[in-house]
Write a structure and sequence with these properties.
Blueprint lengths: L6 H23 L8 E5 L21 E6 L2 E6 L9 H17 L3 E3 L4 H8 L10 H13 L2 E7 L9 E7 L1 E5 L17 E4 L1 H9 L1 E5 H7 L3 H16 L8 H8 L6 H18 L4 E4 L4 E4 L17
Antiparallel strand pairs: 1-9, 2-3, 3-5, 4-8, 5-6, 7-8, 10-11
Helix pairs in contact: 1-6, 7-9, 8-9
């Protein structure tokens, strides 16, 4: 059909976008006067991942999404619209964290226009039935109305061991305005306000991960790549000796989109290869048992490193 872009063409465009970002990041690293392209991720949602696709009821446990990573378990109970999934809640969390740090306030405004809000996340502001703008709003609504629990220890209490649960709601209140009657020239669609809970505000401003905004933009269409990039960025802030996560451990953390471990391994390595283009200084090897993480420079180094929380 005329006007449609093939998957192959989209792939070529995305590869070019990643290459351009890698070049820009390398140039900025060698230029002390380069503008600061800094943003922040939230550690609490990197240690275990949100779903990559809309999970069917069969993948939920009593209506909740659960992912385990060692003795850490993420539990997400969706609001009326369901569980947040895919790229957009990940980008939205990065924006929330960055705005909370920038403003020092738990009361955030999206800005004067819907277009400006989308510009901050570097996505198209289209609001048609399949538009990115509409998808962003729908996923923001899902995230802000969800409730989470972060569990350390034996989540099932199958053994006589310690279990600690932190419950967390993302917002106390929010208003999302989406005026379908406004035309594209006005764009007065998203003058919205979000009030983060004190607990979530404290969590994301205390335990945050400095990221390179250019890398986030380059990876924004692939949620697994965003997760791998943020995870490696976090690990390299604290890693002092080699770490060897197994494929099974990685599958539990990142593999919700794959039915078989061997398929996950192939998909993960392909995504890792892309991530390493925009995070060239990271040192990661792989073998039959898993990965070998070697101490590496962080993606945001030196004076550009503003905040990172503890373990």
């Amino acid at each position: 059909m005329a006007g449609e872009v093939s998957d192959r063409e989209l792939g070529f465009r995305r590869e070019a976008k990643v290459r351009d970002a890698a070049l820009a990041i390398a140039e900025a690293a060698s230029d002390p006067d380069a503008p600061d392209e800094l943003t922040f991720g939230a550690k609490c949602l990197v240690s275990a991942s949100l779903p990559y696709r809309n999970p069917p009821a069969s993948r939920l446990v009593n209506g909740a999404w659960i992912r385990r990573n060692g003795d850490y378990t993420l539990w997400i109970q969706g609001g009326p619209q369901g569980i947040p999934y895919g790229t957009y809640p990940r980008l939205f969390i990065i924006w929330l964290t960055s705005e909370a740090i920038r403003t020092g306030s738990n009361r955030l405004s999206t800005g004067g226009t819907f277009k400006e809000f989308c510009r901050k996340l570097n996505i198209d502001h289209s609001r048609g039935k399949r538009g990115q703008g509409r998808a962003l709003i729908e996923q923001a609504d899902r995230l802000l109305s969800s409730r989470a629990a972060f569990i350390t220890g034996d989540a099932q209490l199958e053994k006589l061991s310690r279990k600690h649960v932190d419950f967390l709601s993302f917002s106390d209140a929010y208003s999302l305005f989406f005026d379908e009657s406004a035309d594209d020239r006005q764009q007065l669609l998203f003058q919205s306000e979000i009030v983060l809970t004190d607990k979530f505000f404290k969590e994301i401003t205390t335990h945050c991960i400095p990221l390179d905004l250019q890398a986030v933009r380059a990876l924004q269409q692939a949620p697994l790549e965003l997760d791998i990039y943020q995870w490696l960025a976090y690990r390299m802030y604290t890693l002092r000796s080699p770490s060897r996560p197994t494929w099974q451990q990685l599958y539990m953390q990142f593999g919700s989109g794959y039915a078989r471990l061997r398929d996950f391994r192939a998909g993960f390595l392909e995504s890792l290869s892309t991530v390493k283009q925009v995070y060239a200084q990271v040192r990661v090897e792989h073998n039959e048992t898993g990965l070998v993480l070697l101490p590496s420079p962080t993606p945001v180094a030196g004076p550009r490193l503003h905040v990172v929380g503890g373990a």
